[in-house]
Amino acid sequence: MPSKRLFDRIDSIQLRGVTKKYDDRFAINDVSIDIEGGELVIFIGPSGSGKTTTLRMINRLIEPDSGTILINDQNVMELEPVALRRNIGYVIQSIGLFPHMTIAENIGLVAKLEGWNEKKIKDRVKYLLDFVSLPSEMFMDRYPHQLSGGQQQRVGLARALLMDPPLLLMDEPFGALDPILRKQLQEEFYQIREKLGKTIIFVTHDIEEAFKLGDRIAIMDDAKLVQIGTAEELIFHPVNEMVASIVDSGKKFKHLDTLKIKDLISPLECMYVHDGSLDIESAISSMIEKNIEIAVVSNGSGPLGIVKLIDLLRMEDKDSKIADHVVEIPSFSRNELLSSSLKIMQKNGHSMAFVMTDEKLSGFLFPNDAFSQVIG
Amino acid sequence: MDKEHKGVDSLLLSDLIEVWETNSLTLRTIEHLTMFGIAIVLASIIGVFLGLFLYSRPKIAHPMLNLLNLVETIPDIPLLVLLLPIFGLGKEPTIVASVLYSLLPITRNTYTGLKEVDLKYVDIARAMGLSEKDILFKVRIPLSLPMIVGGLRIALVFTMGVVTLGGLIAAGGLGAALIAGIQLYKINTILVVGFWTGLLAVIFDGLAGMIEKRLQRRYGIW
C-alpha cells in the first residue's frame, strides 16, 4: 500500500522543550533546536548524553514525554508513524542489512511494500548501488554476509535513499569502520552530500568527523543541549569548559605554518600492503577478508601506488597483476611542512598521499581531513 | 571359500527379495510414509501456528509449553493406549500420537525463533517504515526459519518412531511387518524391516539437516 508523501522538501525541523524520562533518569531534558532545510547538523557528546535519543524521536522510534517535534510545522506525533518513517531515511552503525535477503531485496524492500512494479524497483536499486559506488550487476544478488563492512555500509546508505527522503537520520554510520576506511567513506559522503541536497541529522562521537562534515554542531551532555553552532563559533566562543574540551582536538592545530605532515598522519597498518605480483582475483579476496577498500601496492623495495577495491571489482581481466593497475599517488616525508604538501596535492587533485619515514612507508595523509583539523 | 562366499551373497539377496515380497513391503512402505507425511504436515501447520500464537500471547507461552512438555514425557506406548478409547484402533490414534509428540519441538522452536530474532533487525525494520505485520512476515518469520526447521527435524525422528509403533495397534505400515516378524520370530524379517525403517529415518533426517544447513549458510550464520 503506497503511503503518503509527507514532505517533498524540508523547510524546518523544530524541537520545542522535548523531554524523555526513563524511570527517574532524563534521557533528554527540555531540548529545543531549530534546524533549517538543507542543513547537516551533527549531534556530538559523551555516550548517554541523549544524542541518539534525540535522533530517534524525529522518526518516532522514541516518543517524547513532553514537548513537541515539528517537521515543516507538522507535529510528528500527529503523523502516521509508518508513513513518517518512509519519508525519512535512517542509517545506523550496525547497518542491520537483513541476512535472509539479497542486496537488491534489502534495498528495494520498502518499494515492494509500497507496491512498485518489479522493473521500477530494479531500476531504482541499480541506480542507488551505482550511486554509492558499488557495481550493481555484481552486488544485486549477493547476500550481506558476502560483503565487507565498508560495502555493507554503502548498501545501508543506498537503502536509506530508496524512497528519496528529504531528511536523513544517521547514527554513527562510520563508527564501526577502521580509521582509514572511515576517512575514505567520510570523504565520499562529503562529496555525494552536495548531489543529495538533503537535510541530514548525524550523530557521532568523533569531533574530527563533526568538523569535517557538519554545517552546525550540537553538543549534548547529560541529557541537555549545551551549545549549537558552527565549528568556528564553538572553537572561539565555547559556552563552558566542557565544550572547550570537546572541540580542543580541532583547536590545537591553529598554526598551519608550523605544522608538519607527521602531526596529521594516519598510520599505516601492514594489512593494507599487497605485493604487486598478486593477481586481481586474489587481491579482491584478500581485501574483502581484511575488510579494506584500498590497498597499497608494493614491489618489495617500496610502494608503487594504490588500488581501490571498487576499481578491481570492475576489471575484466582478473588474472592480471595488480601492479599493472596501480594508481600513483604523491609521497611526502613525514618531516615536510603540511602547507606546502597540501598545496601540491590540491593542485594535482589528489585525495590522499603516502607519508614516508626514512624512505619507508609509514602512513597516509588525507588533505580534507587535515583541513578540517586546522580550521581553528 | 569362494563358493561359500558367493552363497552368502545370493542367500542375502534372495532372502531380501523374499522377505520384501512376503511382507508386501512396498505397500507397507507406502502406508508408512502416508501416515508419516500426514502427521508431519499436520504437526508443522499446527506447531507453527501455535508458535505464532504463543509469540503474540507471551503470558500463556510458558504454561502452554509446559503442557506440551508434559505430553512429551508420556512414554509412547502408554500414549497410544490412552488414545485408543477416543480414536479406536488403526491409523488415527497413531497419527494423533505423532502430532502430539511433534508439537513440542516445532512449537517451541517457532516461538523461541521468533522471540530471539536479533533486535537490531527489528529496530531497523521499524525505522524503515515497516508495519508490525510486515516486520513479522518479512523479518521475524524468515529469520526464525533455520530454528523452525531445526524443530521440524527433531519431529521427523519422533514421528518415524511413533508411526512404526503404530504396528502394535493395527495401523499398518512398516511397524505391522516388524510386529509380524517378531511374533513369528523370523530373524530375516526383523532385520530387513528394522534396517529399512532405520534407513528411512536417517534419510529424512539427512534431508531436513541439509535444508537447515542451507538456510544457516545462506543467512551467514555459519
UniProtKB/TrEMBL annotation, chain A:
- Tell me the lineage of the source organism: Archaea, Methanobacteriati, Methanobacteriota, Stenosarchaea group, Methanomicrobia
Q: Does the keyword Transport apply?
A: yes
PROSITE patterns in alphabetical order? ABC_TRANSPORTER_1 (PS00211), ABC_TRANSPORTER_2 (PS50893)
- Recite the UniProt keywords alphabetically: Amino-acid biosynthesis, ATP-binding, Methionine biosynthesis, Molybdenum, Nucleotide-binding, Repeat, Transport
Q: State its Enzyme Commission number(s).
A: 7.3.2.6
- Record-level GO BP terms: glycine betaine transport; methionine biosynthetic process
Question: What protein does this entry describe?
Answer: Molybdate/tungstate import ATP-binding protein WtpC
InterPro entries the record matches:
AAA+_ATPase (IPR003593), ABC_transporter-like_ATP-bd (IPR003439), ABC_transporter-like_CS (IPR017871), CBS_dom (IPR000644), CBS_dom_sf (IPR046342), Gly-betaine_transp_ATP-bd (IPR005892), P-loop_NTPase (IPR027417)
Q: Which GO terms describe its cellular component?
A: plasma membrane
The Swiss-Prot or TrEMBL record describes its family as follows:
Belongs to the ABC transporter superfamily. Sulfate/tungstate importer (TC 3.A.1.6) family.
NCBIfam families given for it? proV (TIGR01186)
Q: Which GO terms describe its molecular function?
A: ABC-type tungstate transporter activity; ATP binding; ATP hydrolysis activity
Say where the protein is mainly found. membrane
Q: Which organism is it from?
A: Methanococcoides alaskense
Q: Known catalysed reaction(s)?
A: tungstate(in) + ATP + H2O = tungstate(out) + ADP + phosphate + H(+)
Q: Which domain of life is it from?
A: Archaea
TrEMBL record, chain B:
Cited PROSITE patterns:
ABC_TM1
Question: What InterPro entries does this protein's entry cite?
Answer: ABC_transp_perm/SBD, MetI-like, MetI-like_sf
**Lipid bilayer topology:** Multi-pass membrane protein
Q: Which residues cross the membrane?
A: 33-55, 154-181, 187-208
- What is the superkingdom listed in this entry's lineage? Archaea
Q: Which GO terms describe its biological process?
A: glycine betaine transport; transmembrane transport
Swiss-Prot/TrEMBL keywords: Membrane, Transmembrane, Transmembrane helix, Transport
Q: Can you list the GO cellular component terms from the UniProt entry? A: plasma membrane
Q: Where in the cell is it found?
A: Cell membrane; Membrane
Q: Which residues form the ABC transmembrane type-1 domain?
A: 29-208
**A Pfam entry, by short name:** BPD_transp_1
Q: Can you tell me which family this protein belongs to?
A: Belongs to the binding-protein-dependent transport system permease family.
* Name of the featured protein: Osmoprotectant transport system permease protein
